C-alpha cells in the first residue's frame, strides 16, 4: 500500500512532515528523517540569533509552551557551514524567518539556487519574537506582500506558515494563496502565558511564548477544515499530533500533509511509530492517504 501524496508536481513518500524547530538542521536522527515525507529546518534569519533568555520551555502532559526565540546560526553560516553537512533523502524545506520584506529577499536570493533545498516555508507566524512573524502574519496585506515577493524570486515550492493569533486566518490564507503560495501551513503556536505565583512574574524568560501540543489539536482541526474548503491550494496541518489517528483526522479534515512538532521533543522516534500506525490503517482500509483527504462527512 502506497502512502505517497502529491502537492502539485511535488511527491512525498508519505504525509508526515517534521516541523521546523523540532529536529534542528537535520544533522541528527537521520534514520527518522529519511523515513518521513519531508523535513523542515529550524527558522533561519539573516543574522545569527541567540534566542530568548532562559527559561524557554514549560510543559505538561497536554501542552508545551516554548519561547526559544528563533535561535539559529544565521544565513551565512547556514549556507556555508550547515547546509553542506545535511545528508538526507527526504525533501528538505528551509524555514525562513524575517522581520520585513528585505529580510525575505536576502534569504531567498541567497538560498534559491541551492540544489539540496526542495522548497521554502515562510515563517509568518512566530508569536514569541517581538518584531517577527506575528506582526507580518496578522495582516492579510503583509502576508500577500511577503508571499508575492518570495514567488517572484524562486520557482521552488513555497509554504506559507500562518498564525491565527488576533487575526482571521481565512483572510491571510486567501492572501497567501492569491500571491502564489503552493501550500498553507496551519497553524503555528498560539500565544500563551505562564505565571510564577511565588515570584509574581511570568515564568518564561521572554515573558510569553507559543502554545503547542495535544491541547490545541481540536482547534487546529477546525481551522484546517474551514480553510481547506475555502482556499484552493493544499493545506498542511500542524498542531498536537501524537498518533496515527491524529494524522488521519487531519487528512479527513482537509490536510494533504501533516506536521509532527512537539511530540518530536518528547520522543525523537515518534515519527517512526506514527508511520507504522498509518501503514496498518491504510492497509486495513484498502485505501491511500489521497483517498481520504477532505472526505469528512457532514452531520
Describe the structure in your own words.
- This protein is of the alpha/beta class and 299 residues long.
- 32% of the residues lie in helices and 21% in strands.
- The chain has helices spanning 30-33, 74-82, 101-111, 133-137, 140-153, 169-178, 217-228, 244-253, 262-266, 270-285, and strands at 5-7, 10-12, 16-18, 38-40, 57-59, 64-66, 92-97, 117-123, 158-162, 183-186, 190-193, 195-196, 201-202, 208-212, 235-238, 255-260.
- The longest helix has 16 residues, at 270-285.
- It has one domain (5-52, 69-189, 211-291): Alpha-Beta Barrel (TIM Barrel), CATH 3.20.20.
- Helix 1 links the parallel strand 3 and strand 4 (38-40).
- Residues 127-133 have low confidence and may be disordered.
- An 8-stranded parallel beta barrel has the order 3-4-7-8-9-10-15-16, surrounded by 5 helices. The protein has a 4-stranded antiparallel sheet with strand order 5-6-14-11, with no helix packed on it.
Give the strand order of the largest sheet, numbering strands 1, 2, ... along the chain. 3-4-7-8-9-10-15-16
Biggest sheet character: 8 strands, parallel, barrel
Could you name the CATH class?
A: Alpha Beta
In CATH, the homologous superfamily goes by the name: Aldolase class I
Low-confidence stretches: 127-133
Instruction: Return Rg in Å.
Output: 18 Å
What would the CATH topology be? TIM Barrel
- The strand count comes to 16
Shape: globular
Q: Give the mean pLDDT.
A: 94
Task: Compute the separation of the termini in Å.
Answer: 30 Å
- Secondary-structure-derived class: alpha/beta
